[in-house]
TrEMBL record:
Domain of life: Bacteria
Keywords for the protein's UniProt record, in alphabetical order: Hydrolase, Manganese
Official protein name in the record: Adenine deaminase
Cofactor(s) listed in the protein's UniProt record: Mn(2+)
CDD domains: AdeC
EC number, UniProt record: 3.5.4.2
Taxonomic placement: Bacteria, Pseudomonadati, Pseudomonadota, Alphaproteobacteria, Acetobacterales
Pfam families: Adenine_deam_C, Amidohydro_1
Organism, as annotated: Komagataeibacter medellinensis
Entry-linked HAMAP family: Adenine_deamin
Adenine deaminase C-terminal domain residues: 396-562
Family membership: Belongs to the metallo-dependent hydrolases superfamily. Adenine deaminase family.
């Protein structure tokens, strides 16, 4: 059978047989020289078999002189952070030219464990795009939070040879790697020689050397050009990230040019349907990079060929004979204006999506609180002098470790609108305990009310921020009723919400519905005084104790630099 497939490719590519499909009259963007080359593209099944020649085809797609570039590869993302299922993600981003996405189901795995890996690997077999999975390496992410599940090395090895699995996902436990933690070593050894993703914010010098010596090859956490340059010089592939919260592209693109493009790729990490609707997906990253002075050759090479090479996907990344027929047709190269997408030789349209087998979601009963939360549960007693305060930086997940003098009333430390300091709590939601972490955060701009989310990286306990204790308690209790999601509360009333019943992380609704709900939530947050572009995603990263400097979990405030509770 394999021989007959290969024989057919040879016959069609050499012109002895009519090609299955021909994309006629395009200008191929050459990733070697940057030239635009007039040509037809011949396709046999899911494979390109001819370029730089004229071909006849059983099925003809008229190019009309459009520009053909290889399909884009998102090298690191969490589909759960798009707030939609893998099938809606497929339908949402494939029309933007993303023909391959490498996901880490880390968020769902921290809630459900192996059932999350089962769900994502099964879904990946059914999507129109080529969805690949990196296995979540840090479940739980740290010992300073309550996760819903644990994945040991043996759990991950069980999926290692799955056809959709690439390797081991972002290894966030830097102290564990550098100090030879036995659990970390077992996972690293199990995947030695394969692909291992990195996660190394601000890591430099000898500590970076030690980390790389574990066989880790990529990083998406570089936030300055100096940091990124050291990492690529030491052999790392830096994944330039531009998501809904973390926006690092402007800082890193000065390094990106045709000479360096083999060492850089693009990723979104966390990007929601509202941002995709307003700006785009990887097409937006390419467009933005070019607008900032990056040569198109470097931008498109990083979005395809460099990404494919970094992850061992040798069958794609170029429009060339023998490569997978993932092709994007553009009306404009510099604007990256996508008009048609071909995925594995198939023209992407509604019929392709309708023909998929959709598997049911899992984790629809994942919120388990020991009882209703009260206003008193939100409160912090004691002195208000020099309280630790999380600093919020819009567009970043790095949070400064601040201190502030806060007012006290009746022995309870109060939030202070004058200093833009709100109360923040993390409520354990996996049914393992009744922990509540309490603290303060600066930068939400709230004049009253509360915002709450069951998306709280990485363990996804319920995170709530507010100026009113009763509103905060109501917000938490409301999320238990909806099975998770986002909610805005003011003066004892729920003014906007979005249920996320799939593991408390994803909607079971179409992406268009999620997009519209996010608009309503954003407006409701603005009515409370919050001017952040992505208030709920910004909130979701505050319980992430692997990103410097001060975070909060259900255990309490965490000094990330020392990995100790404050």
């Amino acid at each position: 059978m394999a021989g007959s497939v290969i024989s057919g490719r040879i016959a069609q590519g050499s012109g002895r047989m009519v090609a299955d499909t021909v994309i006629r009259n395009v200008r191929l963007f050459d990733l070697v020289t940057g030239e635009l080359l007039p040509t037809d593209i011949a396709i046999c099944g899911d494979t390109i078999v001819g370029t730089l020649e004229q071909y006849e085809g059983t099925n003809v797609i008229e190019g009309h002189g459009r520009i053909a570039v290889p399909g884009f590869i998102d090298t690191h993302l969490h589909i759960e952070s798009s707030l939609i299922t893998p099938f809606e993600f497929d339908r949402c981003v494939l029309p933007h030219g993303v023909t391959t996405a490498i996901c880490d189901p880390h968020e769902m795995a921290n809630v459900l464990g192996r059932p999350a890996l089962d769900y994502f690997t099964q879904a990946a077999m059914r999507t129109v795009m080529d969805l690949r999975v990196n296995l979540s390496s840090c479940v739980p992410a740290t010992h300073l939070e309550t996760s819903g599940a644990t994945l040991a090395a043996a759990d991950l090895v069980a999926y290692r040879d799955h056809p959709k699995v690439i390797g081991l996902a972002e290894f966030m436990n830097i102290p564990g790697v550098l100090n030879g933690d036995p659990v970390c070593m077992e996972k690293l050894e199990a995947f030695a020689g394969g692909h291992i993703d990195g996660h190394a914010p601000l890591l430099r010098g000898r500590r970076l050397n030690g980390y790389l010596s574990a066989g880790i090859t990529t990083d998406h956490e570089a936030t300055t050009a100096e940091e990124a340059l050291e990492k690529v010089r030491k052999g790392m592939m830096v994944l330039i990230r531009q998501g809904s919260v973390c926006k690092d592209l402007r800082a890193l693109v000065p390094l990106l040019n045709p000479a360096t493009s083999p060492f850089f790729a693009f990723c979104t990490d966390d990007r929601n349907p509202l941002e995709i609707a307003h700006e785009g997906h990887l097409d937006y990253l390419i467009r933005l990079a070019i607008s900032l002075g990056v040569e198109p050759l470097a931008a498109y090479r990083s979005a395809s060929l460099s990404a494919a090479n970094a992850f061992g996907l040798r069958d794609r990344g170029m429009i060339a004979p023998g490569r997978r027929a993932d092709i994007v047709l553009l009306d404009d190269l510099r604007e990256c204006r996508v008009s048609d997408v071909i995925s594995a030789g198939r023209l992407v349209n509604d019929a392709l999506f309708a023909a998929r087998e959709i598997i049911p979601p899992v984790g629809t009963d994942s919120i388990s609180l020991p009882g209703p939360v009260t206003a008193k549960d939100m409160q912090v007693a004691g002195s208000g002098a020099q309280r630790p305060v999380i600093g919020l930086l819009p567009g970043q997940i790095i949070t400064p470790f601040l201190h502030a003098d806060l007012p006290v009333a009746g022995g309870i430390v109060q939030p202070d609108p004058a200093q833009d300091i709100a109360r923040i709590c993390v409520v354990a939601r996996h049914g393992h305990n009744d922990n509540i972490g309490r603290g303060f955060v600066k930068g939400f701009g709230l004049s009253g009310g509360a915002l709450a989310s069951s998306v709280g990286h990485d363990s996804h306990n319920i995170c709530v921020v507010g100026m009113n204790d009763a509103d905060m308690a109501l917000a938490v209790n409301h999320l238990e009723k909806t099975g998770g999601g986002f909610v805005v509360v003011r003066d004892g009333q729920v003014v906007a919400d979005m249920p996320l019943p799939v593991a408390g992380l994803m909607s079971d609704a179409p992406f268009e519905t999620v997009r519209d709900q996010l608009e309503v939530l954003r407006a409701a947050a603005r009515a409370l005084g919050c001017q952040l572009d992505e208030p709920f995603l910004q909130l979701a990263f505050l319980p992430l104790p692997v990103i410097p400097h001060l975070k909060i979990t259900d255990f309490g405030m965490v000094d990330v630099n020392r990995m100790m509770l404050v």
